[in-house]
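Just curious: can you write whichever protein you like plus the matching structure tokens?

***
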Amino acid sequence: MFKLISGDDLKRMRLSCNRTTDEMAKKIGVTRQTYEKYEAGTSQIRLEDGLRLMVYCKIDISPILNHFIGLKKLFSQYKEFDDEQPNRYRASTKKDHLKPGPEELEDL
């Protein structure tokens, strides 16, 4: 699983801004025990909570935001999808490609 912010990163961030685990937990609305699980690496912090803590500790998040802006520009070049016609852009030309065929039904 991809981790944007590791437990070690959280601990370094907390220590660099001279905060307690309780203060960090209160900032994102979790218990101290939950925050300590984030730092220990036994649980994963949500992206928005990690960003909120970065702002709280006065860490420059502009490189992260610039990267997301770049991704948005990259994805905007692709054609918009119409949710009313979900099968219009399917990869397979076969209409029932997700249904099991006769040979697959025999295995059941």
